[in-house]
Amino acid sequence: MGFAFRKVLGKGYAEHPLNDTMEHSAAIAVLNPQGRPSGLIHPPCNAEKIAADLQKLAKETTL
What we know:
Layout: E1 5-9, E2 20-24, E3 28-31, E4 37-41, H1 47-60
Antiparallel strand pairs: 1-2, 3-4
């Protein structure tokens, strides 16, 4: 599972080299108890739907 990210030079970087930002994915990785990928949650995030999905995954997952 890979997530994209990159360093972006900020405005005025030449004069202030610490002026940069990090662009990254807004997705959330869901891992099972063994640390393996179980899914991805993509925006827009709905808390009720995420909670229901996680409860379903928890019931289906064995340790």
